[in-house]
Amino acid sequence: MKYIKIILPVMLLTLSTFSQNFITGFSWSMGFATGKTSDYIGAPSFTGFSIEGHRMLKPNVSVGITTGWNILNEKNNETITIGSSSITGEQGRYLNVIPALLNASYYIKSGKNAKFVPFIRANVGTYYIMQRFDIGVYTANNDNWHFGVAPELGFMVSTSKDINILFNAKYNYAFDSGTSLGGNEKNDYSFVSVNFGITYNR
């Protein structure tokens, strides 16, 4: 939790330093594990949020930052292998993912006052990932910082001069870093986040 208290204020302070030609977004975020991450948690997550800010450099180009929080969790009775041990029983599996990403965006505008604006975005930065595994009275915790990338597609729909509806989806990939929960596997993660929210232009 101490990392959350550091990351979010820093990101928000950075956002506040921009004044003009700026887009601020707030979204509800859903998460869907992919690859070997889905072997650990297969259930979709509907608990998360995203905060983003983008400074317009040109009418169709911006640079910005994104942060947020995705919580993936699942309870099951499947056998799981951790290190050299196979464990069976009622389990709780959890991932808390906090990204801190820089990005560049390209907006596909059909006109100066376009109401529907698709965009493509490249994100790069760091992910703080907290992993927890519960079975019976036993709890194992693991957390690491990961370098990561996240290609993104989305669109905005204008509802007024300053307010837009926002929809985007990105593939998050956090590269191997530190030690895994079992201690001897690669520690990379991947998931798709789908975000729905609003943006404010100023």
Strand order of the largest sheet: 1-2-3-6-7-8-9-10
Structure class: mainly beta
CATH level-1 class: Mainly Beta
Q: Helical element count?
A: 2
Quote the average pLDDT: 86
- Biggest sheet details: 8 strands, antiparallel, barrel
> How is the CATH topology named?
Porin
CATH architecture: Beta Barrel
> What is the element string, with H for helices and E for strands?
HEHEEEEEEEEE
- Helical proportion? under 10%
What is the number of domains?
1
Low-pLDDT ranges: none
Report on the structure:
- With 202 residues, the protein is mainly beta.
- The chain has a single domain (2-201), classed as Beta Barrel (Porin).
- It contains 2 helices and 10 strands.
- The strands form 2 sheets. It has an 8-stranded antiparallel beta barrel with strand order 1-2-3-6-7-8-9-10.
- The model has no long low-confidence stretch (mean pLDDT 86).
Topology at a glance:
Layout: H1 2-16, E1 22-33, H2 37-40, E2 47-58, E3 61-76, E4 80-82, E5 85-87, E6 91-107, E7 116-135, E8 138-158, E9 163-174, E10 189-201
In short:
By secondary structure, this protein is mainly β. The chain has helices spanning 2-16, 37-40; strands at residues 22-33, 47-58, 61-76, 80-82, 85-87, 91-107, 116-135, 138-158, 163-174, 189-201.
